Amino acid sequence: MTDAEMVTTDDGAGLWTSRTGRGRPLVLCHGGPGLWDMFGDVAAMLADLATVVRWDQRGCGRSEPCAGPWTTDRFVADLDAVRTHHALDRPVLLGHSWGAQLALSYALAHPERVAALVYVSGTGIDPVPSWHGTYRDQFTARLDEVPERHARWRELPDGDREKAVLQWSVEFEDRERALEQAGRMAEPWFGINRECSKALNAETKRTWGTPELYAACQALDVPVLVVDGERDIRPRWAVDSLERALPNVTRVILPGAGHLPWAEDPKGFREAVAAALS
């Protein structure tokens, strides 16, 4: 049974949260930035293994509209407000894509409050230009598989639901079901917070890849599980930078899976996360 409630941050923002399952506390951090929690399947998959807390990040999804601020430090504080509200003592954090970066940032800021980190489909800690060109090339190649979809994607405005579904369809290795699976991500549709997305992506481009970040990761005294879908169009070698830096890391690569590995290899994904929880 879902237990949904709002959490109020120290600056008055209202964050939607949901708590389900039983067992070791696990907090899920969704991707984006500017999107909302799409972890319903993951929460159900892990309900017998963990007390799963999901949340919509500030100004996104079911959380209350707000004017920001759109910074990693603010989102780290919001995540801590969720943890505190639900009285979670050293939960495991699982972050996906942008959420993996957020969960890592939280662990670096508050390692004593984290039992373990599950870093799913992230992009490592090197500067964004080191991998982003390869990603864009693979993104374009996937869209070009069905030229009329690519043409339709180009003509739609940013933030449009249909455009988002077409864009998200490139994330799945199963090309026959890709559009269907992307459509599920957009149900329900809450709209993309473009201001949030633009600001946080710009911050990442400015700040990721610094010597200070590498040093912080090298000193991180938290067990980390890195989970990759082998067929993610974001190059998996980008994550090598993080794997090299971390002193206590395990990496699981799920063959035949794309950017949302739980959707295409649910058994492998559950087994990997279960190991981190135990």
From TrEMBL:
GO terms for molecular function: aminopeptidase activity. InterPro entries: AB_hydrolase_1, AB_hydrolase_fold, Carboxylesterase_BioH, Peptidase_S33. Keywords: Hydrolase. SUPFAM superfamilies: alpha/beta-Hydrolases. Residues 25-262 form the AB hydrolase-1 domain. GO terms for biological process: proteolysis. Pfam families: Abhydrolase_1. The keyword Hydrolase applies. Belongs to the peptidase S33 family. This is Alpha/beta hydrolase. It comes from Streptomyces caeruleatus.
